[in-house]
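User: Design a sequence. Structure:
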């Protein structure tokens, strides 16, 4: 009996581990022919098409009209996870009518989203004008633990003082040298 329960439990874990982040209906709408590089070059050619993109959130802007996410694009893995690499083809804007809380959509968080291409939008990026492909968000997934904020307090508390430790680990006292070794500076 316990063996059968264990097998059922393991199958449940395996099936849930393979569940895609976007629904079947959403995945059917995605145009797989449109790469981000092509959309970035000529967004007007892809207006009305639905694509899946991902990357790292660079900025969140809220206004009376809705919200914009500025996202640094990264390629997606087979599980729709943005590969945080040093290769990006640029940035894009993802728009929505609802409010996006900056504490939830933190700068640096990884996000995957499905959206309809609406065209392009130019705005300032530091000291230059930058043209962003503009997407209307349909569905999104914010990857947990991707912000790098692990609630770590700074400065980290020092380890307990051990008069028998010379920085060599936790060897027994009798195996340690009788005096600390002074290394040249």
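Assistant: Done.
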């Amino acid at each position: 009996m316990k063996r059968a329960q264990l097998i059922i439990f393991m199958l449940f874990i395996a099936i849930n581990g393979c569940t895609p982040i976007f629904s079947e209906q959403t995945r059917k709408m995605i145009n797989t022919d449109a790469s981000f590089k092509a959309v970035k070059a000529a967004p007007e050619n892809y207006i009305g098409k639905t694509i899946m993109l991902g990357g790292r959130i660079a900025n969140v802007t809220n206004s009376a009209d809705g919200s914009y996410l500025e996202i640094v694009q990264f390629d997606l893995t087979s599980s729709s996870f943005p590969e945080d690499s040093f290769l990006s083809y640029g940035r894009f804007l993802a728009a929505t009518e609802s409010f996006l809380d900056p504490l939830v959509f933190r700068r640096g968080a990884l996000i995957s989203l499905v959206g309809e291409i609406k065209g392009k939008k130019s705005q300032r990026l530091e000291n230059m004008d930058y043209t962003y492909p503009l997407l209307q968000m349909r569905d999104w997934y914010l990857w947990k633990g991707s912000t790098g904020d692990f609630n770590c307090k700074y400065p980290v508390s020092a380890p307990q003082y051990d008069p028998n430790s010379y920085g060599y680990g936790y060897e027994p006292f009798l195996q340690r040298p009788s005096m600390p070794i002074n290394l040249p500076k």
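The longest strand covers residues 110-125. The chain has a mean pLDDT of 79.
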